[in-house]
Amino acid sequence: MKAFRNGLDKVMEILCSTILAVMVLVVLYQVFARKVLNNPNTVTEELVRFGLVWVAMLASAYVVGKKGHLCVTLLSDHLNERGQRFLEIVVQVLFLLFAAVIMIYGGWQASMVTMGQISPSLSIPMGYIYMAVPVSGVVMLLYCLMNLLDGAPRTVESEAE
Question: Please, which of 61, 108, 109, 127 could form a disulfide with 139 given CB 3.0 to 4.6 Å?
Fold first, then answer.
């Protein structure tokens, strides 16, 4: 499972970095076209906006996988090790439910509803933009499952291996 997590981490890092790099290049071109060529391009603005949606959603799933999300430690700081472990399981289950119900199911529904809407500049269905939500939901769900399995109590047999 560690190999799968490392592979997923690498894919997410490359994907988010690539989207961000493309966004930077597009913005640089947009500034060049507007200021030097005196010919603003509306396609670039829309492309960067949609790239921001995708990178934000994918990066949020990646952060959940790294357990780097924002958290309030007021409760966990006052718990013993067993209580902290139980709280971590509860948090991961809640993340899992959120990913499954809100992001995957709700995001898929939103994507399907908006497939008929066409973006003004790029002329692509808006459902492809909203597809960032269920895709990142699937990634978040995978990370939550891995986090739960990593937090599972070790048995005598697994410690012997």
Answer: 61
